[in-house]
Amino acid sequence: MVADATTARRLVDAGVRVVGVQAAVTLRVAGGAIVHPDEALTVEAALAAYTRTAAEALGVADQAGVPRGGAAADLVELCRPPSRRYGGYLPSRTPPYRRNGRALTP
């Protein structure tokens, strides 16, 4: 996992599999400032970090992480990009992980 989203772009460009990076697209921090805009990930790369790459890292890429028939999936429909809703800052939170509709706890 990458703790500092400002280095995510360099890691992805180098071929490192980055999993779940917060604020990697906007690089806007809680105070509203944008840090290192040249290090921002594309929306596609950030989505892959939360889906396909995360499933690969967990060893379940054959079962999850991609939108295809038979694969496990959670679907979220957004009417606008989350970055607009929160003014460019995506609040940190641990998502509820589920298996067969039941919440998993650490």
From TrEMBL:
GO MF annotation terms: hydrolase activity, acting on carbon-nitrogen (but not peptide) bonds
Domain of life: Bacteria
Span of domain Amidohydrolase: 19-78
Pfam families from the UniProt entry: Amidohydro_3
Annotated region described as Disordered, given as residue ranges: 84-106
InterPro entries per record: Amidohydro_3, Metal-dep_hydrolase_composite
Protein name (Swiss-Prot/TrEMBL): Amidohydrolase 3 domain-containing protein
Organism the protein comes from: Micromonospora radicis
